[in-house]
Amino acid sequence: MAEQEKNKIEVKIYGSTYKLVGPESIGHLRLVASIVDDKMREIKAHNQSLDTTQLAVLTAVNTVHELLKLKEEVERLEEELKKLKG
């Protein structure tokens, strides 16, 4: 099986440059970086005393929280769909 081709891109997140590599499109990788940058700036705006490490951890915690809430909603909707198909 051939290895899937990977895209590579340099992005700026909160003032630092990172190289992202993945099978996703360049547009997708840019969007991910942009969302992380936006979230970090949003959190920093509410708490100026955070250093970059604290800010990164809180961004990760908030992002995982949002992911888990979305997964719960998907599960709820799947259960509702099963009941409707019934």
Task: Briefly summarize what is shown.
This protein is an alpha+beta fold. It has helices at 26-46, 52-85; strands at 7-13, 16-22. One of its GO terms (biological process) is septin ring assembly.
Question: Helix fraction?
Answer: 55-70%
> What strand order characterises the main sheet?
1-2
Give the rounded overall mean pLDDT. Answer: 95
User: In one word, what is the shape?
Assistant: flat
Strand runs, count: 2
Query: Topology as H/E string?
Result: EEHH
Unreliable runs: none
What is the total number of structural domains?
1
Structural class comes to alpha+beta
Total number of helices: 2
Over the alpha carbons, how many angstroms does the gyration radius reach?
A: 18 Å
How far is it from the N-terminal to the C-terminal residue, by CA? 40 Å
> Beta-strand level of the residues, as a percent range?
15-25%
Q: Outline the biggest β-sheet.
A: 2 strands, antiparallel
Keywords: Cell cycle, Cell division, Cytoplasm, Septation
Pfam family, one: ZapA
Main location: cytoplasm
InterPro entries: Bac_CellDiv_Activator, Cell_div_ZapA-like, Cell_div_ZapA-like_sf
